[in-house]
Amino acid sequence: TDLHVPPGPGAPHGLRVPAYELTEQFSHASGPGGQSVNTSDTRVQLSLDLATTSALDETQRARALKGLAP
Question: Which of 13, 43, 61, 67 is packed most tightly, with the most Cβ within 10 A?
Fold first, then answer.
């Protein structure tokens, strides 16, 4: 399903990120934990290409990319 982000600074109407634009990666969590922490994929990372996503308008895209620039 799509990711729905509630309204906030820079996105007064919220955002809808299409599910097909998200990349999921599952891996083992690091650090202390329960008995299964090292035997199951307990960490999830979501990635989104800000340069191509349809969830942002041009102003939002420019602001996000500028904020992430080195």
Answer: 61
**Residue 68 per-residue DSSP state:** H
> Tokens standing for 34?
């329960």
Helix, strand or coil, per DSSP, at residue 29: coil
Q: Give the tens place of pLDDT for each residue, 20-66.
A: 999 999 887 666 665 655 566 677 899 999 999 999 999 999 999 99
- Give the closest residue to 56 by CA, choosing from 9, 3, 17, 26: 17
C-beta atoms surrounding 56 within 10 Å: 20
Residues sharing a CB contact under 8 Å with residue 11, sequence separation 6 or more, in sequence order:
5, 60
pTM greater than 0.85 (yes/no) = no
Distance CA 63, CA 60 (A): 5
